[in-house]
Amino acid sequence: MFIFFGGLFFLLFGRLLSIQITGQAEGRQMAAMAEARYAKEAVLRADRGKIVDRDGELIASDTLSYRLIAILSEKATEKGAKEPRHVVDFEKAADLLSRYIPMEKEEMIRIQQSALERKPDTYQIEFGKAGRDISYETMEAIKKAAKEEGVTGIQFIEDKKRFYPNGDFASYLIGFAMREEDENGNVKTVGKMGLEKTYNEELTGTNGKVDYKTDRWGFVLPKTEKNIVAAKDGLTIQLTIDKAIQNFVEDAMNVVNEKYSPKKMLVIVANPKTGEIYAMSQRPSFHPGTREGLTENWLNDAVENTIEPGSTMKMFTLAAAIEEGKWDPLAEYQSGQYTIYDRVIRDVNKTGWGRISFLEGFQLSSNVSMAYLLERMGDRTFIEYLKGFGFGERVGIDLPHEAPGIILDVNPSERLTTSYGQGSTVTPVQMIQAATAIANDGKMMKPYVIDKIIDPNTDEVIEDHQPEERKSPISAETAKEVRKILESTVTSERGTGRKFALSGYSVGGKTGTAEIPKPSGGGYLSGDGNYLYSFLGMAPIEDPQLLTYVIVQQPKLKLGQYGSDPVAELYTSIMESSLKYLNIAPENAGEVTTVTLPDFTGKDSGEAMSELMEMGYDPVLIGEGGNIDHQYPQKGIKLNKGAVVFLETKGDTVLPNFSGWSKKMAISFKMLSGLDIRLNGDGFVTEQSLSAGTIVNPSEPIVLQLQVPSERYKVMEEDENEEEEEAIIGG
């Protein structure tokens, strides 16, 4: 016995010594086996990048959601547990869940039975798309119902979903992203359309992880080191889109859509000075979060589809004739019809208006006047001007799948029909680019929608897009003369644009009524309303700040209604609201005196405020006073008298009276003061949650209620005193 147990002892001792020296047992590394058993890894999920407007207001972001799981395996319930952790009665559970998620009870039972047939010891199942993106409220409701009805085994896992807080908002521009499961069962958010798809790589973040060790029961070992690799959120895409102006567009389109039920609509609002797109929308449209309303059309019509523009093209024919010195507004021609080879070109009323001047012809939108203009300047010269305006080639906007359009240039009749917008095709964004040359004194600007791309992990600006001037075919003098003529189409008694006049603002532009090619080819549609109606306009016409293109296709018109009616309703509503929102003073407000703002940084705040008040400004102090660290607007900016000037100093801030402030002013105050100011609505401030004169803690929220300009200005007309109190920032 002694020899037996002694031999056994030396055998075990030798075995332990061998393992200690080699670190192996049965050819396997013991350290690796221990690491595999006890080392754990937790995923730190990255957020998909945000899409925000020009002021940083949210358009799309990730938000918390939940994924539904049903535990099937009895192994999930430990012996002696008071309550089962698995589903005891699946039919009862399916009946409950079908009341809260979009899946029938029978389909849930089929999923359960199919899973058990494939693998009898299946631990858990999910319910596909219906069981994902569950809100917190729905999760709580399911938990409460399960507890009341005795349903067990229902669990939730925290997840992320794409959130679009503005609903149906520039949906064909923004697009949408949705959760997808790859072959390994990993679920991630993928952009499927619009900017979400184009910038999917930039928006997609990189998950992080935490490495740690646990005991056999899964509890983290004390004093164990955690190796953390932080998640990197996706990049932030900041657009040139202005949320307020985009909302004006969406609201106006909803009203017109309800009233006229057109087949299609499109609106683009741009800054002609820079090429920035402030708003872009179309109908039909859809909700990016639910995809409700999404049809077979996945194209952004502003960029990816082409149209025959109709008479809006005449403004560029006019510009070419003026630049060539071939425009004589008082010269006369015989309207009605014009024959080129065997083709007869007619005016819209077939018979014309007799012998009229070229200026009257333009105001009446005469096709024949364009034919005689081409005779004067040469049709090939005209085509070169169109190419100079950028037609026939892509603008190069930062959006995918841009169409180039086609300028027909095979024979004289094609060049003639192109002069009044028939035959040749363009994209709406090409029309915007070309019109910037007229609105911007001959400087043609490239349209763009991406302002900046920012890394939220470091606040580094990865891309910073700046206005880009294109070579223009016309001079400043020509542009100014074209604008005067465009204004006459609105102000003249015979002008086709009379409906597009704005209250308090001068406007110029050109109407268009384009024929629509038959889907089957071979000719154009005919009949009342079977046209593409449009208006390309700018205001104020002396120095345009906004350029808007409106298209309405095949509206349903009642007796006495015209195709220009829905176009005019869209244009006037959007432009009046937008111009007021941008603090562009109406012409009837009287002559406005502007003064160049001096540099007050480093000066005493008391002296600076006194000086500003003497100059006619309204200074607002941020901080306790003393030396001024920053001012807004900065030195050198020309401001209207009565404009607000922010002076930032150190210390606590006393709240001003925000009443009448524009949204941009409120955002500027928020950024300079660092206060937690929350804006509710668009337009101008009407209410504030804390009274003026209150000293607030930086972490204490202040809610400002805003009202849209149309509502605000209706009140202001009734109360002249309120109009006098409004502060306007110019420049």
Query: What integer is the average pLDDT?
Result: 86
Q: How does the helix and strand content classify structurally?
A: alpha+beta
CATH architecture of the largest domain: 3-Layer(aba) Sandwich
Looking at the structure, what is the overall shape? globular
User: What is the domain tally?
Assistant: 3
How many helix segments?
Answer: 21
Main β-sheet, in a few words?
7 strands, mixed
Radius of gyration: 34 Å
Q: What distance lies between the first and last C-alpha atoms, to the nearest angstrom?
A: 105 Å
Low-confidence stretches: 30-39, 710-731
Keywords: Membrane
Family: Belongs to the transpeptidase family.
Domain PASTA: 591-651
Subcellular location: Membrane
List keywords for this structure.
Trypsin Inhibitor V, Chain A, Alpha-Beta Plaits, PASTA_dom, 731 residues, disordered C terminus, alpha+beta, 3 domains, 5-stranded antiparallel β-sheet, Beta-lactamase, single chain
